[in-house]
């Protein structure tokens, strides 16, 4: 397990090396169910469900209203909904989160708005 700086560096390297599976940039809107492998960065608006065994990065300009199940979730934007992360969730400013987080590792940096509940699981949300 690495620090947030290591994760951000890895995400940056994925983007530079073409390893990010998809980008939903600022100004884009999507509603529905998103499933993917690899790393996806969302900077636009998304409403629905997100499922992956990999990494979801929510950028500072993102507005998410979704149920999320992922391995790692990194949040800098606005998120409303429930997150189930098998490995970790990291929130750093200017993140605003409203909902429930279930994960074995949760990091909330100073300056983040967190309104909701958190549950520390020992692994997969399907096997609490």
Tally of structural domains: 1
Structural class of the helices, strands and pairings?
mainly beta
N to C succession of SSEs = HEEEEEEEEEE
Distance between termini? 20 Å
Overall strand count: 10
Rg, rounded, reads 13 Å
Question: Which residue ranges are poorly predicted, with pLDDT under 50 across at least 5 consecutive positions?
Answer: 13-18, 124-128
Main features:
single chain, 128 residues, mainly beta, 10% helix
Quickly describe the structure.
The protein is mainly β. 10% of the residues lie in helices and 59% in strands. The protein has one domain (4-115).
Explain what you see.
With 128 residues, the chain is mainly beta. It has one domain (4-115). The chain is 10% helix and 59% strand. The protein has one helix at 4-16, and strands at 20-24, 29-36, 39-42, 45-52, 55-58, 63-75, 78-91, 96-103, 106-108, 113-120. Strands 1, 2, 3, 4, 5, 6, 7, 8, 9 and 10 form a ten-stranded parallel sheet that branches. The protein starts with a helix and ends in an 8-residue tail after the last strand.
What's the helix and strand layout?
Elements: H1 4-16, E1 20-24, E2 29-36, E3 39-42, E4 45-52, E5 55-58, E6 63-75, E7 78-91, E8 96-103, E9 106-108, E10 113-120
Parallel strand pairs: 1-3, 2-4, 3-5, 4-6, 5-6, 6-7, 7-8, 7-9, 8-10
């Amino acid at each position: 397990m690495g620090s947030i700086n290591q994760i951000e560096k890895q995400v940056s390297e994925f983007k530079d090396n073409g390893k990010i599976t998809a980008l939903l940039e600022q100004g884009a809107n999507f509603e529905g169910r998103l499933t993917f492998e690899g790393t996806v960065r969302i900077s636009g608006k998304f409403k629905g469900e997100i499922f992956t065994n990999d990494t979801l990065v929510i950028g500072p300009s993102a507005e998410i209203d979704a149920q999320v199940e992922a391995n790692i979730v990194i949040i800098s934007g606005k998120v409303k909904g429930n997150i189930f992360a098998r490995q970790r969730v990291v929130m750093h400013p200017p993140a605003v989160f409203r909902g429930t987080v279930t994960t074995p590792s949760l990091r909330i940096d100073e300056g983040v708005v967190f309104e909701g509940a958190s549950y520390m699981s020992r692994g997969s949300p399907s096997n609490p």
